[in-house]
Amino acid sequence: MPDTILKVGDKAPAFTLKTQKGKEVSLKDFKDKKPVVLIFYPGDMTPGCTIQLCNIRDNWPKFEEVKAAVYGVNHADAKSHAKFIEKHQFPFPLLVDTDKKISKKYGAIKKLFSAQVIKRTVVAIDKDGNIVFYKHGMPKEIEILKALTKKVSSN
């Protein structure tokens, strides 16, 4: 089960993961620069995950408007992520969380029989490192963007 229960207003847990291209990404790199959206999803090339990430892709200009750094996160390896991106032309990187350590930190884990699987979870983090949106499932992009713009406009 999740190690942590997070909610809006909490400080986002620190993380460092690599993209499908091997580039290291850390939350601290975005401090005071731009908001971050993490989309934890169960599997590359699966129907629900494809729908969810394609929806972000199809609304990409709106995420660019709020200058958000968007990352998909799951436990598949870089090769699997690269194929998924290529097939669906995602304009954002996918982060490799093979040991699910970061997914656990973010409460994006559920038990399925004896296995721990990634629970579909979307987390938006403002420039100050605070969680401004936290929801399991497939929230609409408008909900995510609203949380980001509400925070951005109140600064």
Explain the overall architecture.
- The protein starts with 15 loop residues before the first strand and ends with a helix.
- β6 (109-112) and β7 form a beta hairpin.
- The radius of gyration is 14 Å and the shape is globular.
- The protein is α+β, with helices and mostly antiparallel strands and 155 residues long.
- The protein has helices spanning 47-58, 60-65, 78-88, 101-105, 141-153; strands at residues 16-19, 24-26, 36-40, 69-74, 94-96, 109-112, 115-118, 121-125, 131-136.
- The protein has one domain (16-153): Glutaredoxin (3-Layer(aba) Sandwich), CATH 3.40.30.
- The longest helix is centred in the C-terminal third of the chain and has 13 residues, at 141-153.
- The protein contains five helices and nine strands; from the N terminus they run βββααβαβαββββα.
- It has a seven-stranded mixed beta sheet, with helices on one face.
Shape: globular
Top-tier CATH class: Alpha Beta
- CATH superfamily, by name, is Glutaredoxin
β content, as a range? 25-35%
CATH architecture heading? 3-Layer(aba) Sandwich
Widest beta sheet: strand line-up:
2-1-5-4-3-8-9
- The tally of helices reads 5
Mean pLDDT: 91
Give the total of domains. Answer: 1
Note the run of SSEs as H and E. Answer: EEEHHEHEHEEEEH
For the termini, the CA-CA separation is: 36 Å
What is the gyration radius calculated from CA atoms?
Answer: 14 Å
Q: Tell me the number of strands.
A: 9
Relative helix content: 25-40%
Low-confidence stretches: none
Helix-strand category:
alpha+beta
Largest sheet: 7 strands, mixed
Q: Would you tell me which CATH topology applies? A: Glutaredoxin
